[in-house]
Amino acid sequence: MSAVIDAKGLGKRYGxxxxxxxxxxxxxxxxxxxxxxxxxxxxxTLLNLAVGLLVPTTGTIEVLGDxxxxxxxxxxxxxxxxxxxxxYSGLSVADHLQLGAHLNPTWDRAMAESRIDQLGLDPHQKxxxxxxxxxxxxxxxxxxxxxxxxxxxxxxxASLDPLARREFLQILMETVADQGVSVVLSSHLVADLExxxxxxxxxxxxxxxxxxxxxxxxxxxxxxIGQRRDPATLPxxxxxxxxxxxxxxxxxxxxxTAPILDPAWTVEEVGLEDLVLAYMGQAASAARRxxxxxxxxx
Amino acid sequence: MIWLTWRQFRTQILVVAxxxxxxxxxxxxxxxxxxSLSDAYLxxxxxxxDCGSTTNPVMGTDGKxxxxxxxxxxxxxALIGIFWGAxxxxxxxxxxxxxxGWTQSITRRRWLAVKLGVVGLASVVVAGLMSLMLTxxxxxxxxxxxxxxxxxxxxxxxITPLGYAxxxxxxxxxxxxxxxxxxxxxxxxxxxFVAARVAEATWVRPHLMSPVRATFPITTGNGIGFSLTPDGxxxxxxxxxxxxxxxxxxxxVNNAGQSPTAxxxxxxxxxxxxxxQAGPAGGGVRHVRVPGNGPGPQAFQDCVTKVAAKYHxxxxxxxxxxxxxxxxxxxxxxxxLALLLAGFCFWWVRHRLS
Lengths: 298, 354
What we know:
The structure holds two protein chains of two kinds.
Chain A: E1 3-14, E2 17-28, E3 32-36, H1 43-50, E4 58-63, H2 72-77, E5 78-81, H3 93-103, H4 109-119, H5 132-145, E6 150-154, H6 162-179, E7 182-187, H7 190-196, E8 199-204, E9 207-213, H8 214-220, E10 221-227, E11 239-245, E12 249-255, E13 266-269, H9 272-290
Parallel strand pairs in A: 3-7, 3-8, 5-6, 6-7
Antiparallel strand pairs in A: 1-2, 1-4, 8-9, 10-12, 10-13, 11-12
Chain B: H1 2-48, H2 57-61, H3 63-95, H4 98-101, H5 108-137, H6 139-145, H7 151-154, H8 160-179, H9 182-204, E1 212-217, E2 225-229, E3 232-236, E4 246-253, H10 262-268, H11 270-278, E5 286-288, H12 297-310, E6 312-318, H13 323-351
Antiparallel strand pairs in B: 1-6, 2-3, 2-5, 4-6
């Protein structure tokens, strides 16, 4: 299984500020990949690097085995829906399809037109007059109708209302199923990703906290509830991700592939959202520990 | 990409084409009248041997229209830079649509090349058509004026407007990619463009070719005059009337190249110089140009004769035959500047906007 995105030591600096530092990740093909992380984790920077809108300050990134945006062919293999789904507000829906047809040799006119038809968009409507959801659908149509091998979406539903969000993701899923295209989709809302993704990458502070197929991740993580107990005393094959203690009770989120034999624990399944939040929390507390204390230097 | 550029630019270019067409109609209607008027005048004045430019009727009839059209052509390059150049990339950066354009199956270089090529070409064509119309229409007036190097003529006729338009356009695009916002880019374009034009006309254009020197005798006929200053009586000259030439300097010197001293002037023209003492208190400057103003015509004539015996007028100027050389160099300067700016835009868009 080859990687659709392969980043090594990737860093991007704007002036003096680093938006992404030393990011190494590999995203396999054939998945709908959710890239999740808190604001400022570098998700958007990473995706913009992947489509060649940005070039790395340090490190390398390969997309479908090639340098992003290195050639018209490479550009044609990657479809992109940018954050806030920009469209030309003065051009009509039909103009946008013309634009796609003129700028992409692989353009599938019939598919683009039937999509617009199904969405119920008026081809003569100016893009500036579309609702946020309709605009996102138009941007998605442009990205899909060029028949890419990889579709990258940067927070496509962030500005949509819940209904439009659900509809957008549903249509995205149908298309993915029809075309067998790999998808990488970023969001800071796990609930959105849960519905559509079969592979998850949690990015916090430029670093991958965890990555893997969603079903495996869910199968490997468990919540243990039982009498108060020091998490350090757990078996070595049980990695502690998050633990909380009350006076009498411990709740510990662990990762393990081995069966849990200790009868003292009540074992619960973990939802995707809890899992992601646990990893984000772990990274945040690690960052707190790593932060240098104020002191006088002599 | 050509389609997209055309689609985005369509409305504006159609409006401009409409304006140009309307202008053409006005000029075609009034032009032949101007030519016949001028021809009739020139025919009659040649027989009378009295062809003064100020009495040519074309000057009065359509002077207003001529100066109005000149004003339009003067600002057209600036308007092109502000409304076509500055928003071209800045608006894409501002609204985020560059992310749509740069992720289609087309390289960023090609995207920029087509935009610059199509809109830049339109800019030059618009300025060229306007200049062509105005040059054709105003030719009787320009012939009568015989001042082809004049600021309101040289830069508003023939090929110079093409260079200005190309430069203004490239300047606008450059400002746009640098500041990434449309309105500040438009303002910056206007400021820099005006500054560049003024600086070029003031400091560069006079030195494009070293001027020709010519010597003229001092006579009452060629605009000689005297002026009373606190330093004594001084000779004032008007550049002599060399048709279609561009006088750069003119001064009164003797064979050794020296200007008349105050002592010489006092001895040569005592009655005029004494007027200095009779002049306004505080030593203000008084001009004695027209005989009869002040100390009598005879004194003025005597003074001119005495000065003319030792001194002559040296004029440096760009002769009329250099008009096309100057047009060519001036246009080339601005075209080269435009190309440099365009090259910079390619580099910047490729390396700094990513």
